[in-house]
Amino acid sequence: MQILDSMDANPKKLVVVSNRLPVAIHREGDEWTIRSSPGGLVTALAPTMRSARGVWLGWPGCSPETPTDQLLATLTELDYQLQAVDLSEDDISRYYRGFANRSLWPLFHDLLGHFSFNTDDWLAYVRVNQRFAQRVRECAGHNSFIWVHDYQLLLVGRALRELGVTQHLAFFLHIPFPSPDLFRRLPVSRDVLEAMLQYDHIGFQTAQDKRNFIQCIKWFSPASRRTSFRRQSILRHEGRDIKLGYYPISIDFKEFNDLAQDQRVADASWYIHENFASEALALGLDRLDYTKGIPERFLAFERALDKYPELVGKLSLIQVVIPSRLNVEEYQALKNELDQLAGRINSRFSQQGWTPIHYQFRELDREQLLGHYRGCEIALITPLRDGMNLVAKEYCASQVDFRGVLVLSEFAGAARQLAKGALLVNPYDIDGTADALYAAYIMSAEERRRRMRILRHEVRRNDVRRWVQWFLSDAPLDKDESGN
What is the β-pairing status of strands 405-409 and 423-425? Predict the structure, then answer.
């Protein structure tokens, strides 16, 4: 029996474990508010959690003194249960901002210049992963399917084994996995690999990520053996079989496609063009992060204006940067760099009634987001490295008029799936990106439609439900079900 079939028959409880809950709790004056949390994981898993009526464990974004349980109990509209894992400010500082985001995040994104390691941060990471495991053990029954997510929780599988949990454990990594040469830079690399091998099923975004992990295992444990198939490999390690696979995460195509056709989104799209007064608009939409390649994108746009003067007065870049980690000095410095770059480029090229870069540092609500997706003729999505990049897929799903062109970094995980319809670029190649931007601008309407049909077909065919089906249908069976 497959996991999906088991869930449809309702004998299993799906337990999802992630660093953050799909909601965040805030205090405004004397009142508490609960807001939905943005992010690709929430977008991807929420429909499945609703249908499975599962349990989601994670940090709710507030201090341990918050009446979390009472507040979460009021969310009856979710159709699934939320369980909080309490984290102190010291935990967040060392486990999250420290080891997870100063060690793992830059290392896994091939950006060693941002990498650092601190032993106290590592020990905090170990403790917090153990705390997550304890909460999972409290909430998960014997017949639960436990699915742990992402780089913040690499050690939860080992911690669950130490607590006596014997059922199958699944893990999915949403960011890239580095090559052995990079991974070995981490002083605790062997500890991390040993812990990850306590999972029974490990999923990655791309085939390259899976290959990198296997190469690391060859270095760590030469005696381990593997059998490879088209999308999966079976790793034999210390008498256990561990399934490895790659499963590109996706979006709810139907939701974006349907919402993009709403009249309010059409009105928002029209308003964007009227407000920015440009013949064509290119869109950049990113969380504030050095992996997103936003400074390089600004320089490529500037180079396009230099190289192709006919773009001046005709093509504007709308760059929306979603605030993130502003209490971290490195991220504040990145924001200052973007402020200065946008100001310098605008001072060079602005004309009466036309501005080259419209730089917005804010979040967008759903209607504004879809309006930007539908209204911009070009999506300029050029991360230096990305696990997948759901913005690229959301843009395609929202292009109900088939007018858009996707310019996409070859270092985004989505590049392999979307290569046939996108213009792929190396974000470090400023001239090459400028040339692709110009090619997108002058592309004929017929070629735009042809490419966007390919892109939308790919995103529709491999939507979020298929991603979940891929992963869960590949999951190993529980011992009781297999008869062992």
Answer: parallel
